[in-house]
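Peptidase structure dump, as promised
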Amino acid sequence: MFFHPMDILVFAAFGLSLWAQFKVKGNFNKWSQVEASSHKTGAEVARQILDQNGLYQVRVEAVRGTLTDHYDPMSRVVRLSEPVYHSHSIAAVSVAAHEVGHAIQHQKSYGALVLRHKMFPIVNLTSGIAPFLLIGGLFLGQLNLIGLGIILFSFAVAFQLITLPVEFNASSRAKKLMVSEGIITNNEEHGVNKVLGAAALTYVAGALMALFELLKFVMIFLQGDED
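structure tokens r here:
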């Protein structure tokens, strides 16, 4: 009943997201079988890069799960999943270095990261309200609800778009640091690119899906306004 031509693009982005997640797991599993020439674990790599950048106060901790790695800016902790924390593989050192890249961004007040942190409380609130306004506006035929939902949803879309340079920059920093620190050789960069490139694609797909969804509701709103 509410099918819209923009749904095709939304579904395409959703398909890209599923494919990207498949690639992330596939590349991570593949390069988890290849040991890095430095023979360092993900935890050792994280600690080495942190110390080399004066981030002695940032802790490195192991967390349960797979691909649950992240940097916590509030606690100043790099949390690595157990397969990354304990492994010597190309995949493990790549993911560990990427998360440290976020810690370095935090240290240097990287613009996109600072903006992302400031937006988080707002997005956390608006993203929970927007779907109800949009769906309610469609069912009730209330353009004012749809319009308000679009405004609130746009914060979530902006958040996802700002996440892209944050993630790409963290990966770029990670690759440069791993080479300069002797953690990987030039021959191993191919594996690092495969692991981090697939992960970046998931963020691109998520951003596209959110953007196309927003554009769909904007078009519905404009068409309803004309009627």
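The longest strand covers residues 59-63.
lmk if u need the other ones
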